[in-house]
Amino acid sequence: MTQFPDDPAGEFPPPPREFTDREDRLVTVRTADEDDYEALVGMYVEFDPEDRAQGIPPSREDAIREWLDAVTGPDCPTVVAVADGDVVGHAMLVPDGDGAYELAIFVLQPYQSAGIGTELLQTLLGLAQEEGIDRVWLTVERWNDPAVRLYHSVGFETTEESGLELEMGIRLAE
Amino acid sequence: MNLLLGIGASDDAGAALEAVVGRAREAGDDLTVAVYAGDDEGDDVAAVERRVRDHLAELGFEARVERVEGDPGSQLIELADAGDYDRLVIPGGTRSPMGKVRLSDAAEFVLLNARSSVTLLR
Question: Which fold has domain A17-171?
Answer without folding.
Answer: Aminopeptidase (3.40.630)
